[in-house]
Model the fold of this input.
Amino acid sequence: MKKEIINQEQNILDKTVSEIDGIIKSLGDELKNNTTKDVLLERTNRRFINDYLDARKNPYFGRIDTYEDGKRETFYIGYTSVAKDKNQDIIYSWKSSVGDLFAQFHGGDGNIVIDRGQKEKYDFNVLLKRSLLIEKLKVKKYSDTVSEQAREELGTEEDSVLFDDFLMDILDGRNNETQLKDIVMTIQKEQNEIIRLSIDNSIIVQGVAGSGKSSIALTRISYLLTRYKEKLTPADIGILAPNEMFISYIQSVMPTLEIEDIPQFTFKTLSKSILKNLDIDSLTDPINSLSGLINGDPADINNFKSSFEFKTKIDLYLEEFKNQFVHNIKEFRYFDTISNTEIILSRDQIINRYEDLSYLSLVKRNQEILRYIEKWVDSLLQSKQEELKKEFETVTNTMFNGIPKTGSLRKQAYESIEKVYSYRQKQLRDELNQKWKEYKSSWETFDVYSLYKRILILENLYHGKVTTVTAFKKHLEYDDLAPLMYLEILLNGESKQYQHLVVDESQDLSPFQIFVLKLLSKSMTLLGDVTQNIYVEKGINDWSYLIENVFFNDKVRLIEINTSYRSTNPIMEGANLIARNANLNAPKIIPIGRKGDKIAIEKIYDPIRLLENIIETIKSLQKQGFKKIAVVHKDLRKSVSLHERLVKQFSSIQLVTNSNQIVNKDVIIIPSFLTKGLEFDAVIIPNASDRNYGENELDAKLLFVSLTRAQHYVKLFYHQELTTLLNGIEIPKVEREEEDYSFL
Ligand SMILES: Nc1ncnc2c1ncn2[C@@H]1O[C@H](COP(=O)(O)OP(=O)(O)OP(=O)(O)O)[C@@H](O)[C@H]1O
Done:
């Protein structure tokens, strides 16, 4: 049966490939015959030809069979849709509604409703879903899932071939050229559900290390762009990553998912679009402050500024400033020397108008109320000028009654009165203008930086001596970005710049930062893992806090994934052990079940031997086919010092010292905190001693992150005593070469 099906599928594949060839040829012919040089045709056909040439290499990875009105229909699903005559699909994209169907069917009665919103709702009766592994246009493997109806009525059988074998083959690969891979073909049920959720609500994905969060993040963007193509452009979505190195890491998979035009930011670079007058590039990255802390340098880190409590404080201060502002509103008063009366725009009138403008942002409201007063002053000036004019006309009319029309007396008198009139006009204008100027300059303005400075001083968080705003701005730090962005949004009004933001490694952001992101975007996908929050005091240790305080329990869904695909069973068992020994509030990782070597552990007696051992381990791993190898030390200082010594003997090793660096070598030395989100074939930890990794949360998380970066192999060395975080791990007995003391 198995062979028969593979043969059948091979025949269909061969036919499909020649059909694609035919389509490409006719598109090419159309181009040749395009004598009128129709630009649209030129562009469309070229794009189709490129897409189809690409699709031809591996046209599809599955099929789905449905049964409707006694008729069986088969749809093939691939990365790209391929259409005959430009609109008749012969292969459907994984992002289409048929792609949704393929993703959603996991057996059962086969009745599936695909509801993509916007009236796109379909009922299907599925018989069969077949996953296909095609390599170099040869069908290699398949796996079937059939509905109950198919099994009973049509006698279609489920084949016992496990498609998981294919997933395992991919995960076992040791020499991946690309960094992150796309997972469209081997996507798992729980991952798929997240990718295809509607854009309307926000979601939080708590996924253990290696559960595919980054892969899901990118695949979801690709899916959303297609599903909502009528209302979304790439610029409407943004992806937020922890640092530039991580951005370049995810970029490798972007072209295959067709999402390379999606704006990519770190929190710092995103803040540039809001805080336009601040030199953001000069702010120290948070990872560097953390690096100092890990190095053991005394760090002046103020966690309060990142906290949600600070956001609440800002709200209170702003309310107070607003009340003060209203309290300080003064009437506009002008003494009219013509009528010898005082003309007043009363405080109540101004406040009433101010209340009417409450729908505006603070800055706009401020501008608007000033404009209202200015208009009032203008019309006062006009009416007074009118009065003067009338007075002048009356005077001249009554005065010149009976005085001869010709003659110098009349002329002289007229000129004198006119002079007086002009003088009074000017006097009126100048006086009112002067009054207005004084009034306006006494009017309070809302400037983000001045207000923020006031808040910091009131909160005793500012100890600088500077007085000017320019000087104050130079003292700002990374942790000031979220409060400043928040203030800016409060003052100038909320504007949802994005339809959707996808935030990877979101556990490293503070609740305040996430709140600000929420103000900028209609909905969000936050992906993270609380166990990997190395900003222990600031980041997210508990999603429920975020759900209650930032999302107010509204329009947000928490989804957990505990299966990990990256590492072998022994590596994940080691990671679980660390979390348990450190009493971390961590979900237990369920490894996908890949076999592998136990974590190798070796005691170091002689530091010089350690260098040789590391080099030997690297060389032996390379011989075994491992490509990307990372020597992950705990802190930066030790990494630099280890690199200085190692590079003398092993020149092709790159030291990674900061998160903006381009990694271009396969073997690197990198401090633990910079490995967040990355993945290597093998990881070597030079000293997992109890001195380096104590039983505290930060050390436990750093060791946890370091270990879980490895796909296949981990080797730990330690000096003196192994960290108690690994208590309970099996330590292979290594026969130590007896040192030769015979000559003594
Ligand atoms: N369905 C899948 N099919 C094939 N490979 C997968 C699948 N899901 C995840 N992987 C692989 O597992 C590894 C881990 O994925 P990814 O880096 O996206 O996980 P993560 O949850 O972001 O990890 P971390 O939080 O530890 O950084 C990657 O090599 C990815 O290609």
User: Anything to note?
Assistant: The first helix runs from residue 2 to 32. Residues 167, 170-171, 181, 183, 186-188, 191, 207, 209-215, 529, 532, 565-566, 677, 679, 708 surround adenosine-5'-triphosphate (CB under 6 Å). The chain has a mean pLDDT of 87. The first strand starts at residue 62 and ends at 68.
